[in-house]
């Protein structure tokens, strides 16, 4: 049985202005982007089989390392909580 925490973070920006959301701090874990509707396809959904997935995730790391995420207007995001061990190999 997988005892890993399964948490997601979902946010919607219905404003015409960009916003920065503050993410919950989860020691030993980090947030990883899955969906960002403000990004062009195919980077709006970072599926496991996306060839540039790791590069795309790395572009978010500065924000995610600080538990924040910038959102453009009229967009939504889905982030997954993953273990630091899983992201570090």
UniProtKB/TrEMBL annotation:
InterPro entries with a match to the protein in the record: Glyco_hydro_b, ISOA1-3-like_C
Name this polypeptide is given: Isoamylase 1-3-like C-terminal domain-containing protein
Originating organism: Nymphaea colorata (pocket water lily)
Pfam family membership, one: ISOA1-3_C
Lineage: Eukaryota, Viridiplantae, Streptophyta, Embryophyta, Tracheophyta
All copies of domain Isoamylase 1-3-like C-terminal, residue ranges: 2-79
Domain of life: Eukaryota
